[in-house]
Write a structure and sequence with these properties.
- There is one protein chain.
- By secondary structure, this protein is of the alpha/beta class.
- It has seven helices and ten strands.
- The protein is about 35% helix and about 30% strand.
- A six-stranded mixed β-sheet has the order 6-7-8-3-9-10. The protein has a four-stranded antiparallel β-sheet with strand order 2-1-4-5.
- Strand 1 and strand 2 form a beta hairpin.
- Helix 3 (about 105-115) crosses helix 4, helix 3 (about 105-115) runs parallel beside helix 5 and helix 5 runs parallel beside helix 6 (about 175-195).
- The longest helix has 18 residues, at about 175-195.
Length: about 220
């Protein structure tokens, strides 16, 4: 039986809105097992980004629970959640989230260095070579194209050998051709590493490349 990597149970999120409250997520429940590739699709405002933030422990639910690696995130303090993220999660964002003052190599090394890895440089160099940027190690984000910046983000995400990769609209800021190349690379690296993937997207063609699709509408899971 496959190991459950992340387990979402009766998850709800309510936020203040004007003089009242707004329910963003309604009793969301699902589990993702090791090696799965799962797409979460839905229109803008359906709650996809909120759900992703809760799965990562960047925010806490109003009700229900997120168990990552067997641990209930709501029972951990902020430092413990950050530590769990560092050990188990990799992230790829629509906006790349590279630090502008760091080179491609330094951006990729950063999580490894924060984890105290003595092989940070060698691992980062190998990952950047894997994504086709062996000749761009010393370049800063402003000197890289959007596709190259997302390749750095992929190298950084996979450098820590995460158990779970969370990808939030990874092609949202890229043209169609570049986006397709990035997705091919991401799925190839995911397969090589045996990583579990949760992909948030509004792109049905992209969702179809995953083994399972969850649909959010108005903060509820359909079906």
């Amino acid at each position: 039986m496959a190991e459950v990597v992340i387990d979402i149970a009766e998850l709800g999120k309510i936020v203040p809105s004007g003089e009242g409250t707004l329910t963003i997520l309604h009793e969301i429940s699902f589990a993702v097992t090791s090696g799965e590739a799962v797409a979460i699709v839905g229109a803008s405002g359906s709650g996809k980004s909120t759900l992703l933030g809760l799965m990562a422990g960047l925010d806490l639910p109003t009700s229900g629970s997120v168990r990552l690696g067997g641990q209930d995130l709501a029972l951990l303090d902020e430092d413990a959640r950050a530590g769990l993220r560092g050990r188990l999660l990799g992230f790829v964002f629509q906006s790349f989230q590279l630090l502008p003052a760091l080179t491609a190599l330094e951006n990729t090394m950063l999580p490894l260095e924060l984890a105290g890895r003595g092989d940070a440089r060698a691992t980062a160099e190998a990952m950047l070579a894997r994504v086709g940027l062996a000749e761009r190690l010393g370049h800063y984000p402003k000197h890289l194209s959007g596709g190259e910046q997302q390749r750095v983000a992929l190298a950084r995400a996979f450098a820590m050998s995460p158990q779970l990769l969370l990808a939030d609209e990874p092609t949202g800021n890229l043209d169609a051709t570049t986006g397709a190349q990035i997705i091919d690379l991401m799925f190839a690296m995911n397969s090589e590493a045996g990583t579990t993937l949760i992909l948030v997207t509004h792109d049905e063609a992209l969702a179809n490349r995953c083994g399972r699709t969850l649909r959010l509408s108005g903060g509820r899971l359909e079906g």
